[in-house]
Each structure stands twice: as structure tokens, then as C-alpha cells.
Amino acid sequence: FHFKDSLAEDLQSADLVISHAGAGSCLETLEKGKPLIVVINDKLMDNHQLELAKQLHRDGYVLYCNCSTLVEMLQSMDLSTLKPFPPGQPEKFASFLDKVFGFQ
Amino acid sequence: SGGHTTEILRLLSCLSESYSPRHYVLADSDNMSEAKIRSFEQKRAETFSKSQFTLDRIPRSREVRQSWISSVVTTLYSIFHSLPLTYKWKPDLILCNGPGTCVPICISAFLLGFLRIKRTIIVYVESICRVETLSLSGKILYYFSDYFIVQWPDLKKKYPKSVYLGRIV
């Protein structure tokens, strides 16, 4: 499975997504309302990916694990506990920048 | 690169055409972002017919897990390549969100400001991935940016000069 320009089609037809903790992957999946298990990559320099997975998990949006615990997670998971993910608000950023430049 | 590109395109999604032309700068080793950017700009051109953008590449300033010392050397090399770009475009605004690529661009803009050639406003938006700690780019640009935006409240507490708008991507 090499790189595709977009995983949108695959995401749409999936019942469950297992992904690394990259922002794009997580956000795209959560926004399509698909249940998500985030797997952390232990090899990146500082394991900052863990921060997002932990926070999203704390807020009840995803399940998370690492490579060695994935199988166990798949066997014991309860997807009904996951909450729907509210979208981000880039319009707030636009308003903020407009104020900085006096565009209003 | 990758996730950073997705985030920055979302940040751009609500901006008016006052923020034009847009000059994108990518790392030379980045193979996936160009398609995403072109797709974004194409959609944008459907709504705003006079929409303009350019795309340039600079040497990647740092590979994942690259040593600190060689990172300084490669970053200096990238700054050297960034200066002609920043000098050419003389941007009013630089918007960046964390890939190593943004550090040399921002430093070159900062230098142009220091030399009174062009005063650019630098807006840095830390990635949504960063909940408790800043990225390396963030730690550096916290001091060089005019506005430093974080997306989680813990970071606002730790970095009081930052701006917190909630989740914006």
C-alpha cells in the first residue's frame, strides 16, 4: 500500500481505523466519524505523538496503544465508548489575523 | 511536510483574498505536499478567480533524529537558500506551523527586518499534536515570532506570551 494522494475513499468505507498519531491522519479520521485506534511510534526522537493521542483519549475521542499492545487492544476494545469529535474552528484564526492586519 | 501541510491548509481555508498572493515554501525532499497545495489552490481559484500562488523549495533543514551539531550546519545552509526567497517576495506575513523548513525562512525574514529591508510579521501556529510541550521549531520561534499560537490550554499556561484560540485546524 504505497502513498496515495488521498485516503478519503478508504476512510469513508472503513468501519475501524488503526493509525499512527500524525495530526492529519487523526483529524481526517475523527472528522469522518470513524472509530480510531492510534498506535504510537516509539522510534521518533521525542515521543510527542503520545501527547496528542493521550489528550484525544482523555477527551474520549480515540483509543490508543503501541505496536506491541495492538492485538490485545483489538481483542478487548469497546468502540461504543468513543465520543463524537467536534471540528476545529479555522474561522477563529481568520478573525484573529484580520484583527492583526486591520482587515475588519 | 505531511501533517504540517494538512494543518496549514486548514488554517488558510477561512482567509480572505486580502491574504494574496500566497508563496508556499517546501523542503526539497517533500513529495506529498505539492499535490495537496495545488489541489487546495485549485479549489480556491474556483471561488476567487484572481487567486495567485507560487511554490518554492529549499533544502530540508533537519532530518528526523539528526544530531544537534549537523542540524546547525544544515539549518545554516537552508537559511542561505531562504534569504534570496524572502528578499524576492518581501512578505508582509509569514505563516508557519512547525516543520524544520519554517525556521530558516523565519530567521531570514528576521534578518531582513534587522537590516531594515522589510519588516515581516511572523505568525507561528504550533501543531495540534503539541499538547504539553512545544516542538523544537516552536521553542526557537517563540522568541522570533510576533504572534505565537497554541491549540491547547496547557501550552498557554507554560508559554504566557502565546495566544490561545482553541482548536483551529
Automatic annotation (TrEMBL), chain A:
Coiled coil: none
Cross-referenced InterPro entries: Alg13-like, Glyco_trans_28_C
GO biological process, one term: dolichol-linked oligosaccharide biosynthetic process
One function term, GO molecular function aspect: N-acetylglucosaminyldiphosphodolichol N-acetylglucosaminyltransferase activity
Residues in Glycosyl transferase family 28 C-terminal domain copies: 1-90
Entry's localization field: Endoplasmic reticulum
Record-listed E.C. numbers: 2.4.1.141
Keyword entries, A-Z: Endoplasmic reticulum, Glycosyltransferase, Transferase
Pfam family, one: Glyco_tran_28_C
GO cellular component: endoplasmic reticulum
Main enzyme class: transferase
Main location: endoplasmic reticulum
Family: Belongs to the glycosyltransferase 28 family.
Protein name according to UniProt: UDP-N-acetylglucosamine transferase subunit ALG13
From TrEMBL, chain B:
InterPro entries referenced in this protein's UniProt entry, alphabetically: Oligosacch_biosynth_Alg14
Pfam families: Alg14
Major place of residence: endoplasmic reticulum
Topology within the bilayer: Single-pass membrane protein
GO molecular function: N-acetylglucosaminyldiphosphodolichol N-acetylglucosaminyltransferase activity
Transmembrane segments: 67-87, 93-115
GO biological process terms on file: dolichol-linked oligosaccharide biosynthetic process
Keywords, in A-Z order: Endoplasmic reticulum, Membrane, Transferase, Transmembrane, Transmembrane helix
Subcellular localization, as worded in the UniProt entry: Endoplasmic reticulum membrane
Entry GO terms, CC: UDP-N-acetylglucosamine transferase complex
Quaternary structure note: Forms with ALG13 the active heterodimeric UDP-N-acetylglucosamine transferase complex.
Similarity comment: family membership: Belongs to the ALG14 family.
Name the record gives this protein: UDP-N-acetylglucosamine transferase subunit ALG14
